[in-house]
Amino acid sequence: MSINRNAPCPCGSGKKYKHCCGSLGPKPGTAEPVRTLPRNESAGAASVATDTGNSPALDQQINTAYQLFYAGNVEEAHQLCEPALAARPESGKVVHLAGLIAQRRGNPDLALALLKRAAELEPLSPVVQGNLGSFLYLAGEADAAFDCFQKALELDPGYVGTLNNLGNIERDRGNLDQARIYYEKVLSQHPDDAGVWLNLATICKEAGQHEQALACCQKALQLKPQYPDAEFNLSLNWLMKGMLARGWAGYDARFRMERAAVPVRRFSPPLWQGQDLGGKTLLVWGEQGVGDEILFASVLPDVIRAAKRVIVECEPRLVTLFARSFPTADIIPRSDPARGRALAPGIDYQSPAGNLPRWFRPTLESFPAQAAYLVPDAERVARWKDWLDTLGPGPKVGVAWRSMMRGMARDRHYSTLTQWSRILANREVNFINLQYDQCQPELESAREAFGVKIHIPPGIDLKDELDEAAALTAALDLVITAGTSVAATSGALGQKTWM
Question: Whole-structure pTM over 0.85, yes or no?
Fold first, then answer.
């Protein structure tokens, strides 16, 4: 199971093994660190101490299990590791491998417990500390992960993968300058690491330095051609610069990224790539989150005019709202696997919704001057206006302050409700809750802090009853929200929206 020195390194860096982990190790009885962080880590290697037992045959079995694991043969490695762990439960090397295998086999809780134990057994191993940091990071324990990465770096100052991971956490914390320092340290030692060039690109993009971000993405692609993560980030930078045609052209790389957040839907009709839709039937399938589906739906009126027939497969909670808003299209709920009208004969092309802007929004000028494209239920709007009138005089302002999807990186784009003191201090305004998850404690904290009541709309599930939520939103005078589906819905309804 030895690794060919000219083969791609099993750590996933994209470099040849001899120029990556093979140049630093592994020595007999040692192992390389596993890639676990959701970024593009730099490769690195250091030793996990060799078990000092007296069975050479078991030593060879353990080393073979490591090699199988890093070659991608996780189940075979598991079959060898289980008896080794039973024979040597106090071996840091074996416990470490068992943790790596557990992570790959989809048991993150067991993996984290095993890595914590391995760190107790091998407190001086930078690899164990680094991998424990990775697992803690994935578990949402970023501060503890940061401590592990720092300890790994103290144990091995040349452990560049740890520098990269420290940069990832600082980036997520919003400390962009410090993250840049870590990434640049890695590149000073490994200037051909495409993943770290891409990480540096993200720092530049978030700092608004789009020319530098573009240059870093292009450098990553030069080092690693056909690198979809870099292609996607390059497209985002073009879009943010207003170069829409160039940006949309690379946007489909989102489906090919290593940790793609957008799963590919499999349909038999060919992918639509801008052909004439006259007399044709097009299936459009929604992607990403509810807010994204609403944003991309702004292109549907153009598509409907261009095609003979349009079938839209969308999030089931959006079906009623979309059916009213696009009455000449056939709106169906998404199912996995697809069924029913999504598989009906006679469909000429299919397209993910996020591909549509490439053909209908190539420039800023191609966006129509439309006030709204979603249509709420008029009777429901009237009913909500009646309820709002019972709250007394003054503007009726809807508020939402964060997404349901939490995490250190995402939370930087949101706020706590207690940070809204200057808004909530206005006693002439009636505030209406649009936050669509369990937020009662936050509402109560705001009431205690500011002496203001944020009214809870009665009899509505803001998360699941999206048509009802759209009617409530349309009945308001103003919406103030973070960049979530609340903002997408409000803007699509033509409601005055402060984001």
Answer: no
